[in-house]
Amino acid sequence: MKAPSSAPPQSPTEEAQEPRWLTDEEQRVWRSFMEGATLLDDHLDRQLQRDAGMPHVYYGLLVKLAEAPRRRLRMTELAMLAKITRSRLSHAIARLEKSGWVRREDCPDDKRGQFAVLTDQGYEVLRQTAPGHVEAVRQAVFDRLTPQQQKSLGEIMRIIAEGLQPTEAGADLPWLR
Amino acid sequence: MKAPSSAPPQSPTEEAQEPRWLTDEEQRVWRSFMEGATLLDDHLDRQLQRDAGMPHVYYGLLVKLAEAPRRRLRMTELAMLAKITRSRLSHAIARLEKSGWVRREDCPDDKRGQFAVLTDQGYEVLRQTAPGHVEAVRQAVFDRLTPQQQKSLGEIMRIIAEGLQPTEAGADLPWLR
DNA sequence: GGCTCCTCCTTGAACTTTAAACAAATGGCT
DNA sequence: AGCCATTTGTTTAAAGTTCAAGGAGGAGCC
What we know:
The structure is a homodimer.
Chain A: H1 24-52, H2 56-67, E1 72-74, H3 75-82, H4 86-98, E2 102-106, E3 114-118, H5 120-140, H6 147-164
Antiparallel strand pairs in A: 1-3, 2-3
Helix pairs in contact in A: 1-5, 3-4
The structure holds a DNA duplex.
């Protein structure tokens, strides 16, 4: 991220041309982004750990389940929706199961498959902690941005997210550029 | 984050009024944000773990050190710059020390104090991996956004970050609203 | 000096995340 | 049926993070 004073251009046949360093302005944007994102996630993590007894990611899992038909989702689908690995999800569900907020259920169609099912207790936790969480999000984000800024933020982050989705072919195929 | 169908308004004297749920549009913005931020950080984490043998946060620490006078910073100052807790920093520096990229040095003025100092080896790692990292950031972010969007992103994230800075009095004093 | 409070940083335990390896089931394909 | 590649989800260990507690030095005050 830092440009060592003056690096001379590489040989033209080298794959590594002079790196496209960030300009000062780009630097500022990038650092603001990282700082904001870090502070925000830490903030919400603490908020939820305190009020709901779980990290932000876990809370997000419960939300996805609550929105799903019959409050259940296949592990792989949940992992994709939540943008986390299956491994991470496995651990997370194990912990949420221990807390009594989620229960596993076998999939009748596919003996490999597992459903993660939101328990009534899990739904209750969500019901009780959701107001506090939305409020935290509002105070940290929406209350501070103009409608136009909110709209921009949505568009921008959607673009960034799409560029990184494993779904999008070409994203992991840089040699096709 | 999810509004259970129709919750009746609370008693007016209750502190908990009807929660200010997010509108559908706000939901979309918020989810795009979380997804984008998650995917981006995971992506850069993998990129740096692969190419530099350390997580994104650790890389950021080396960058801060590289920019500091005499390539050294007091632990507390580094923690504040990097927006992480001192505890986390302690562990992180221990690991970076083991890797030979940072070294601790006692502070002459204050016997409690410690400097984290970037070693030559640490600087070298940075020099070699910085180009690849900037490139990753460019591809994921700057190459996809218009100049106007980049500017907006900077402004927006700066606002969010400022609202969460422990520095800003009033941020932790919600009763003063 | 002695007292108290605060700051600086570390530590250890509990918890979460990652990466790699794995078993089991599925889905073609012959 | 038999075979092989893929998909599904879990497991293990190592790495990273958090939280609460604590040692030690500094700073103000009597």
